[in-house]
Amino acid sequence: MPLFRPIHHTFAPHVNAGYVLRTLALLLKPWKWREGPERETLRAALARQYDADVSLFASGREALVALFRSLKSPDHAEVIVQAYTCVVVPNAMLAAGMHPVYADVEAETLNLDPADVERRLTPRTRAVICQHTFGIPADTHKLRALCDRYGLLLIEDCAHILPDDQGPATIGKDGDFLLLSFGRDKAISGITGGAILSRRPAVSVQLRAEEGAATALSLFRIKRLLLYPLVYAVARPLYGIGLGKALLILARAIGALVPILTSAEKNGTMSPTLHTLPNACAALALAELHRLKAINDHRRRLTALYLTETYKLQATGYRLSIPKAVHPDLPLQKFPLFVKDAERIRRALKQKNIHLQDGWSGCVICPPGSAMEHECYVPGSDPAAEAAAGQILSLPTHPTMTEKLASELVRELSGILDRQKK
Ligand SMILES: Cc1ncc(COP(=O)(O)O)c(C=O)c1O
CA within 20 to 30 Å of 375's CA: 30, 77, 211, 233, which one? Predict the structure, then answer.
């Protein structure tokens, strides 16, 4: 029997009743959509919390373009980035005239392998961007030391995790710059939005100029963004009976929803035009920042639950593993498992109204189908990333995923693994 309530990664994962009410209140005040005090309140709160100058843009990818342009590097300067990343990250480098160079990941962290970073350095290398994949901390101490030795800038991509006062303590401490995303499934969500937190005053000046020159999104686009939580709040409970999917297809067809990734972006191009963070999205992100500890504590509880359940499954002979760096105190954005035949398991779970396709499986430049050659990735060059991407099965930890649903997911998963054993 399929579950009545879907388990998912991407169906408006942050949208609970409070989020819907906040969005409805904003929809009724179109004069606050573009401009308003919340954007400055968000800026001040982030500056205080992470001790940096803050520039805000309409998405994380745009914030990255602004940063890369602000570095004023020679054309085709190189940035080391990990294989197993989102296509919008190398796109942003290319849009700013820089060149992505991929380094491999460590299977136990899914993050940059510092030794491989060192092997990929050239005289053109300008910066290293490290991703805290799914909330697992990258080894920023080693990367900081390496960057200092070679005179490079260190950018921490915090799209998947924002630390709170319980940690993880190393995240956000060593970077010259931090990238934040307020996208729909990120650490906190404003539906869209992004920030660069800068600790280099000269670059902060350039970033401010980029933000000053950015244009506002149209009111029509902001309205479409604000419809997203409402459309999903209606469609989600109807997903098990097919009506939810029909509603989403209809909403997309009539242009009521803004796609997260355009086909041009998937093919490796990104517009260099930057946009300001709409005040409405800043207001939603600010409300989530105020709840960061509660959101992270929820993620910690689910991380601990999945970890315990995985150990039990391992003890009874199931063949599945976890990256070694995962521990119960991490507020993971999603919980990574390595299994045999991950794609087949995802397909079987889909029959049960469990949707674990999150765009981060079967690809090193994610989502699957992104134009690797355009992104300068040479297949075979990062074997650990390719192996991890092939075996990964991620379990949701987002704010609307309950502990009860997590236990149901583990039960369904062990049923499928049982059949695999036979
Ligand atoms: C690791 C990583 N960095 C940066 C981004 C960019 O964020 P945004 O969607 O806000 O452009 C994303 C997501 O798309 C991501 O997964």
Answer: 211
